[in-house]
Amino acid sequence: MYPSPPKTLNKLNFKNLIKFIGPGAIIASVTIGSGELVWASRSGAIFGTSLMWAFLAAGIFKGLQVYSSTRYITLTGVHPITAWNKTRLLKWWFPILFVAIPTIFTMPILFSGISETIGYYSLRLLGIEETSGAIGSWEQFEFFGNIAATVILGSCFILSISTGLKLLEKISIAVLATLITCLLISAILLQPDLMGILKGLIPGQVPEFEPWVAEKYGDTIASRSKWAEMALYLTAVGGGTYDYLGYVGLIRDKRWGLAGRKEATKQQLEDAISKDSSQLKNARKWLRAPMMDTTSSFFFVTLVTLLFVIMGASVLNPAHEIPSGNDLLNKQEGFLSLVHPYLTWIYRGGVFFAFIGTLYGAFEIYRHSVLEVIRAISSKLVEGSKTTFWRKATNAYCIGFALLLIWLPQFLSGNIVDRMVLGAVVGGALTCGLWCFAMLIIDRVHLPKALRMGKWLKMGVILAGTVLTYLGVLSLFDYFS
Fold it and tell me: Is 1.10.4100 the CATH number for 7-480?
């Protein structure tokens, strides 16, 4: 049943376990984008360091959600969405209505929003500023921004289809290391308020908007409740179901435990464990691989998020500046330019690495997301060459609708923030919370008692599901109201 794990999993030490960082590096490079660079900075600009505890909690909750899933596919060889569709209480309505449809709906929104964000940023780096005048149905700056976004999206797609998973993992790790290095240098040079940071990590109240927020951003930010504003930040951080479906699917390629080898029923697992005592030991040793991968991924995501909150509080809050409109990245250049003008290029390099890494890795992640949705409906639909068809169809769908959203005039498609917020609200919290509860169900129904989640993991997943679902409902209500 369970193959013997590699010797590197027999001994728990950092040197051995770090070798199992793979899909987690990809998901980290994909999810470190708008949520961390934009929303975390925006939180620091508005609330200072007082919400750091909430970002830390979000990173932990989503890490628990994902580990419960990578753990399940490692033990059974079955992706959670397939297991949900084989569970009487969840069959069809949950995996399709609450996971598949929101995932497929959100993918092109994220591709378009990320491409436009970095496209507009590129224009400003080239010295092209917003001016009056129109080109057809577009404002002049919007038109050139759309061209830049199209070039960036197309380049990342070509890069993604010309490289394999191993190269993608190496590039993702390099992107992460470069960005974190840039941020650590910035945080040290800015000499932030250490006492304020420590206080911000202690769970507490959400502060009211400062008077200057209402005066300067009354129509866009202060018109919403402080709780809804906080909820939107947390839904955008660390990715969402659209990312996690594909991330769990990538475990098949790593062939950890039964993932990518065979699918086992509860009875088969029980028989294997009862007949051979070494099987249970093998299963538990294999769980060290997804644990290390998931933990490292969300550690880095959370670290980057907290660093941007700190820098937003140190630079943007005193200057009364908030990332908004289509200018979502330029204000953050002050994170390093205040120390020395030339250091601005460190920030710019980090931004490009982060956003290009997001687009580059997202193609691979979302191809796996769609494959897992189709496999959950019928495994026959992804047999043999049919896999290639679905990969090409996913690419065509994502690029086609992303370009449509990019080139539709903003009075029809909405601005970048509105679209990104909708994607984050739908896939970043509500469905993540419900995912946690669904994992608890299949853990109980499809796993032998010896392989089920331990007490502390189960309690963590329950708490994560409760908080994320609440935030999703709150932010969704606020968005549509």
Answer: no
